[in-house]
Design a protein that fits this description.
Strand content: 5-15%
Structural class: alpha/beta
Distance between the termini: 25 Å
Helix content: 25-40%
Number of helices: 18
Oligomer: single chain
Number of strands: 13
Length: 573
């Protein structure tokens, strides 16, 4: 997993490699595409023009076959220029040169074929079975009579609304300590090396879990990256595991990658929430209840990525599932974690965030009213622990101190001239006797490269795939998409009926009407992945050992999520 610098989108493969391999007539050293072939355009970032989903006045594809102009448009010229600059930059730095000595030693390009051969449907079945095993392992110690109604009812913690009880004065000032589990708490505290701030957050949750009379917990654990929020979660998981009550803790996150790092799931999949916020059917509601069976605590990481409306949708869905509409989050104990100086909500940014100043000012629409309720729900989170000690960067070198200071200032958009000068000192340089690092150094050559535009990513992937094949003495194998254009009725703004041609995965026999003309299909194959809204490549070039990235959330519980990296072992249709 150390040679995962060059990322490529590995999606459906439609080439019967295994059948040819068994016949002995397979040759994986075919020619790769000409390196001078360049991507066409970046529809996702720079234009809203033609893409895979096109609206046409007539569904007759024959009518639209015409000669395409070779003259580049203004937008495409700009895109081609950007890609040329990226290519020239990498070539000047020597990043595209064939240097087999720098190829990571963990890459294995020669190994026997997989012992197990399955088709796509069979692999999906295996993944579903493994997911079921993981979920069953989490709930194996759950009491047989436990259900969401009894676990989340107010009778479980003996709390009765509008009921006044006389207590001793010492009750208000004393701290609850579980005598039975105090030794276990201290052992876990030492085992995970928690500092004072982390220990405070850890003890709040575990003491709450041991107290039978505790009220609903609505907690936030904050702090910049590296302060140990995930370490607190690991300690909590260990505590519930030693109590054989791991089923009581559910870990969620807004994205698949974040969920996989914590061993959890996305809140969309667990709670059945989509972007439209539709009401769940009775069947779906029953399935969601089974997922939350026995759960008493939800740890939701990366809370900064939640918008106000998403906070409302989570609370409303939990209230519906637990049949407790009068209590925030249905009475579920919620532990939020994250840093509001990091990632913003994907849609709306700061204007829809939990600290937005505009949400709730004029809630006239249903969407705005839901967002206002979500903001009010966030204000009910009153148990707060802020982690300040950076546990990830504790070295004392001068450069480390400068780096920490730059990161801290960057969080608040307050970088100083000294911070900028330090960051510029880390710009890659290939000049001889230069004190600055180079992207062509052995320690940097095979790391990931982050870009701001998809078209630059596609060009880096193309160059990196060619370089990897050369360094590993292989040829790239091209896999081509099979595209059809079934049409369906849509209406434009004037109400007139049109035909929308949609690129779909084929699921039946093709007719002459569905087939794409060869000249159009060739153009589709030559487009980079960024030329369509789904970032799907028309042509995928692979070789054994090449680093790849998963582009879909297949199974969060198995870390098969979007953004996870691996390498090509073999392929079959």
């Amino acid at each position: 997993m150390r040679n995962l610098g060059i990322r490529y989108e590995c999606l459906d493969v439609r080439d019967d490699f295994h059948a040819q391999l068994n016949k002995g007539d397979i040759d994986i050293t075919v020619l790769w595409e000409d390196p001078d072939v360049q991507a066409m355009q970046d529809m996702d970032e720079m234009t809203s023009g033609d893409n895979v989903n096109v609206v046409q006045d007539d569904c007759n594809i024959e009518h639209h076959v015409h000669d395409f102009s070779n003259e580049l448009g203004k937008c495409e010229k700009a895109q081609t220029h950007l890609m040329s600059e990226m290519r020239a930059t990498l070539q000047d730095l020597g990043w595209t040169e064939n240097i087999p000595e720098l190829l990571n030693q963990v890459v294995h390009v020669r190994h026997p074929p997989p012992e197990v051969q399955r088709n796509g449907a069979a692999w999906k079945t295996v993944v579903a079975q493994k997911r079921t095993e993981v979920l069953q392992l989490r709930s194996q110690n759950m009491p047989e009579n436990s259900n969401s109604k009894t676990i989340h009812s107010t009778a479980n913690n003996q709390f009765v609304p509008d009921n006044v009880r006389v207590v001793k004065k010492s009750y208000l000032s004393s701290l609850f300590v579980s005598k039975e589990w105090q030794a276990t708490i201290e052992d876990i505290y030492i085992l995970f090396g928690l500092n004072q701030e982390q220990g405070r957050a850890f003890r709040i949750v575990v003491n709450h879990a041991c107290d039978p009379d505790s009220e609903q917990l609505k907690m936030y654990i904050g702090g910049m990256a590296g302060t140990g929020k995930s370490q607190v979660l690991r300690a909590l998981s260990e505590f519930f595991s030693q109590r054989k009550e791991l089923y009581r803790l559910l870990i969620l996150a807004p994205t698949g990658s974040a969920a996989a790092l914590l061993g959890g799931s996305t809140y969309h999949s667990v709670l059945g929430i989509n972007s439209d916020g539709d009401r769940p059917s009775n069947t779906l509601l029953s399935q969601l209840k089974s997922k939350l069976l026995g759960v008493q605590y939800i740890f939701l990481d990366e809370v900064s990525m939640l918008s106000c409306r998403e906070m409302y949708l989570i609370s409303a869905r939990l209230a519906r599932i637990l049949n407790n509409p009068d209590t925030p989050f249905g009475g579920m104990n919620m532990i939020f974690a994250g840093d509001f100086a990091q990632l913003l909500p994907a849609i709306g940014g700061e204007h829809t965030s939990l600290y937005s100043r505009t949400v709730g000012r004029n809630p006239t629409s249903l969407y705005d009213q839901q967002a206002a309720i979500g903001k009010a729900l966030w204000h009910q989170v009153t148990t707060v622990v802020i982690l300040r000690q950076n546990m990830r960067q504790r070295t004392e070198s001068v450069e480390d101190a400068q780096f920490r200071e730059a990161l801290t200032n960057m969080r608040y958009k307050a970088c100083t001239a000294e911070d900028i000068a330090f960051l510029r000192s880390r710009v890659s340089s290939n000049l001889p006797n230069s004190l600055r690092p180079s992207i062509n150094d052995a320690r940097f050559r095979n790391i990931s490269i982050i870009t701001c535009l998809n078209l630059l990513k596609d060009e880096i992937n193309r160059l990196g795939a060619l370089r990897f094949a050369q360094e590993s003495n292989q040829n790239l194998v091209d896999f081509f998409s099979i595209d059809t254009l079934p049409s369906e009725d849509v209406k434009d703004g004037s109400g007139a009926s049109k035909k929308r041609c949609v690129r779909r995965k084929p699921c039946r026999e093709f007719t002459e009407h569905d087939k794409i003309k060869p000249n159009i299909q060739k153009i589709i194959w030559e487009q980079p992945p960024c030329a369509n809204t789904k970032l799907v490549p028309g042509k995928l070039s692979l070789c054994v050992g090449m680093p790849v990235m998963i582009r879909n959330n297949f199974a969060m519980e198995l870390c098969m999520t979007k953004g996870q990296e691996g390498f090509v072992y073999a392929w079959q249709s």
